[in-house]
Prior knowledge:
Layout lengths: L1 H17 L7 E4 L5 E4 L6 E3 L8 E6 L3 E6 L3 H17 L11 H10 L8 H17 L1 H6 L5 E6 L4 E6 L1 H10 L6 E4 L2
Antiparallel strand pairs: 1-2, 2-3, 4-5, 4-8, 5-6, 6-7
Helix pairs in contact: 2-4
Amino acid sequence: MNRIIFVIILICSCQLSCVGGGISDNSFDIDSSYTLVENGFNNNSIVGPISICANIDSIEYSHDYLLIKQIPQFKDYEQALMRDLLLFLTIDKKNKYSYFDESFIQKQAKILRFVGNNGDSDQKTLKQLADSILNSSVFYKKIFTSGYCWWLLNKQDTVLDGPFDRVKYDSIKINFRSQNFKVLKVE
């Protein structure tokens, strides 16, 4: 019973942390599946079947796609990754996480004595694991290479591609010019 209550609290806290605890200054429905949530702390998020929880600068959207410009922040990615790692290590071991090596994480968690009770030592372990992934992964290094990165979200297939640099973004824009993108500048 306690485990079920912990799972419910964990899922609710992850959902709330992505949208700023439900306290937002403004939100904009991009379509029936995706919403831009502006929570007033320069930590705007896109919430939907695929969520991007950190510092959205602008969105260009069409019926089928979102082109997202992001100002990536290490701390935001660290917190999101810590949540994913906690889910992976305690609840969701069957899900596949493409952005970290699951066997490495399991071995490291055992070495660092991850218990699974979300106490101080577990938080320290999660932070160490997240920092290790963020500092060593080619994927994350690509995100933090410049001040901005771009993402292409295919809303029909719920596929997120990226991160892209400005050159790749410009070529995508040329290839998708028939999409009649509308621009949403985030303040």
